[in-house]
Amino acid sequence: MLKRLYDRTMALADHPQALWVLAIVAFVESSVFPIPPDVLMIPMILANPRRAWLIALVATAASVIGGMLGYAIGALFYDSIGEPILAALGKGDAMAAFNTKFNDLGFWAVLTAGITPFPYKVITIMSGWTGMPLGTFIVTSILARSLRFFLVAALLRQFGAPVRDFIEKRLGLVLTLFVVILVGGFYLVKFL
Q: Where would you find the membrane-spanning parts of this chain (predicted)?
């Protein structure tokens, strides 16, 4: 079953509309959606390594624009939209105490969340809610998301065939590691 799902994802990754789907996923992941764009980006690059830089650029641009939506949710709609999203992630109670501390970290908080598996949407919403300067938020988001997506693209472009062989031979292990990383990210959100 996993092999069939993997083969289907690889076939869809080379579809002409795949970039649009990646852009949509990267956009909504930055503000409300729990699944990272890497799930699409990685098979897209493995299926067509020549397009690695374009794929990374689309993921970066859409993610930063989606991050601005998250920022707007925090700044303009925190009570009606932002608070329920953050409460669902286990962060509802600690918001007031976090406000001052967050803005002191500002640049580093956005940079860390933009690069790591930590859910980026939490930081985008918090940036708007705490009133982080929009310019700082945008520049840091561009830097962080570029580092993350272009590093993945570079590694897959350079080592694509061995990575693809590894995934195809050890798909169960790769899926398990992905789930562990995803659950670990949500665990960090809930308990940090």
A: 52-78, 105-123, 135-159, 171-189
Secondary structure of residue 9 in the 3-state scheme: helix
In the numeric block, the tokens 């998301």 are attached to 145
Give pTM, 2 decimals: 0.72
Q: At what angle do helices 120-130 and 95-115 cross, to 10 degrees?
A: 130
Interatomic CA distance for residues 179 and 185, integer angstroms: 10
Can you say how many angstroms the Cα of residue 102 is from the centroid of all Cα atoms in its chain? 20
Q: Is 133 helix (H, G, I), strand (E, B) or coil?
A: coil
Give which of 151, 159, 86 is closest to 115, Cα–Cα: 151
Work out the number of other CB atoms within 10 angstroms of the CB of residue 175: 14
pLDDT at res. 18: 83
Query: What DSSP string runs through 5-26?
Result: HHHHHHHHHTSTTHHHHHHHHH
How far apart CA 192 and CA 111 sit, in angstroms, is: 17
pLDDT-flagged residues of the chain (< 50): none
pLDDT of residue 138: 94
What range does the domain containing 115 cover?
2-191
* Structure letter (DSSP) for residue 33: -
Q: Which two tokens stand for residue 32?
A: 């409300």
- Helices 38-47 and 134-169 sit at what angle, rounded to 10 degrees? 60
Between 134-169 and 52-76, two packed helices, what is the crossing angle to 10 degrees? 130
